[in-house]
Write a structure and sequence with these properties.
Elements: E1 3-6, E2 14-16, E3 25-32, H1 38-49, E4 57-64, E5 72-79, E6 89-91, E7 95-104
Antiparallel strand pairs: 1-7, 2-6, 3-5, 4-5, 4-7
């Protein structure tokens, strides 16, 4: 069974840094903000990890999308590249609700 160890991010506005994004992205997900809470989006992202035997890290956060109209969406990514440390993440504008986990298979 897959276990998740939460990474203690420096704040709720952090995303994966260059060690993981974009070169180690396995898969990315998004959904309208009104369809999930922070807790349910994290749960959804943890379920997605089950599809990838090589997954090392999963992130979940909300952000203003880059398209039009500018609305808040949920985003989540599954990464390879080994387990992450807090300093593998960087602050990002318009991001909130950020969570990150190391994946233990």
């Amino acid at each position: 069974m897959t276990e998740f160890v939460e990474i203690s991010l420096p704040g709720s506005n952090y995303i994966a840094g260059p060690k993981y994004s974009p070169k180690n992205v396995i898969s990315g997900y998004n959904a309208p903000y009104h369809e999930y809470t922070a807790e349910s989006w994290v749960g959804y992202m943890k379920q997605q990890v089950e599809q990838y035997a090589g997954a090392d890290v999963v992130t979940a956060y909300s952000a203003i999308n880059s398209g039009t109209p500018k609305e808040r969406f949920w985003f989540g990514y599954v990464y390879r590249g080994g387990h992450a440390k807090p300093d593998d993440f960087k602050p990002a504008e318009d991001v909130k609700d950020a969570h990150a986990y190391n994946v233990e298979h």
